[in-house]
Write a structure and sequence with these properties.
With 117 residues, this protein is mostly helical. It has one domain. It contains six helices and no strands. Helix 4 packs antiparallel against helix 5.
């Protein structure tokens, strides 16, 4: 709920207190970061883009430390997040680290190229 409302700090507080974090909880956190970034428009977009990209990299580090780095569902969300940040290179790194590539993964990567030009 906090992530959906754009209150990332509150979402992280709840997330960090959970007894276990699973694929769903990680996906929600990633999508929350994307939502917050996407809602910020106007002057300073480039700075916010760089900040969102850095936040994404921090989230990826935690995801890998918790053993979800190769999960296809988490990977799809990360590819989408990096795409929204304009980093096709990071999107490819995540895609290549995924344990498998289903139709959604390929569609996400194709859309990443479309969005990034």
């Amino acid at each position: 709920m906090y992530a959906k409302c754009g209150s990332i700090d509150d979402a992280w507080r709840v997330f960090n207190r959970m007894p276990t974090q699973d694929v769903v909880s990680w996906s929600v956190m990633i999508l929350g970061h994307v939502k917050v970034w996407a809602s910020t428009k106007g002057i300073g977009t480039i700075l916010r883009n760089a900040a969102a990209l850095e936040e994404g990299r921090k989230a990826l580090k935690q995801i890998i430390q918790n053993g979800y780095g190769s999960d296809v569902f988490v990977g799809n969300r990360l590819v989408d997040m990096y795409t929204e940040c304009g980093s096709i290179e990071d999107a490819w790194k995540v895609f290549n680290s995924m344990s498998s590539h289903n139709m959604v993964a390929w569609d996400t990567m194709i859309l990443a190229h479309v969005k990034c030009g």
